[in-house]
């Protein structure tokens, strides 16, 4: 196994790791266009998945009164 004669600097290691960060993109727009979310997941706003209602979403009291 390779063994360096001298210690690598902190800067050298950190330069190498700059490309290992997590991507910032959150996902895509849902098919209904209501919100951003992950693919292959139920839309948290509408409760729809692949055009079908999967989860019943309760409306807030303010929206019910209106």
Number of helices in the DSSP assignment: 2
Distance between the termini: 71 Å
**Helix-strand topology string:** HEEEEH
* Share of residues in helices: 10-25%
Q: Roughly how many Å is the radius of gyration?
A: 23 Å
Q: What's the average pLDDT?
A: 79
Low-confidence stretches: none
Largest sheet: 2 strands, antiparallel
Major beta sheet, strand line-up = 1-2
Q: Proportion of β residues?
A: 5-15%
Summing up helix and strand content along with how strands pair, one would put the structural category as alpha+beta
Number of strands: 4
Shape: rod-shaped
Give the SSE map.
Blueprint: H1 10-17, E1 28-29, E2 36-37, E3 48-49, E4 52-53, H2 61-65
Short note summarizing the structure:
This protein has 66 residues and is α+β, with helices and mostly antiparallel strands. Helices cover 20% and strands 12% of the residues. The protein has a domain at 28-57.
What does this structure look like?
The chain is α+β, with helices and mostly antiparallel strands and 66 residues long. It has a domain at 28-57. The protein has 2 helices and 4 strands; from the N terminus they run αββββα. It has helices at 10-17, 61-65; strands at 28-29, 36-37, 48-49, 52-53. The strands form 2 sheets. It has a two-stranded antiparallel ribbon. It has a two-stranded antiparallel ribbon with strand order 3-4. The chain starts with 9 loop residues before the first helix and ends with a helix.
Notable traits:
66 residues, two-stranded antiparallel sheet, 4 strands
């Amino acid at each position: 196994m390779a063994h360096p004669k001298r210690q690598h600097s902190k800067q050298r290691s950190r330069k190498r790791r700059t490309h290992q960060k997590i991507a910032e993109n959150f996902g895509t727009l849902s098919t209904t266009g209501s919100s951003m979310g992950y693919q292959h997941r139920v839309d948290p706003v509408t409760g729809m998945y692949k055009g079908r209602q999967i989860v019943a979403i309760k409306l807030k009291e303010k929206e019910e009164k209106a």
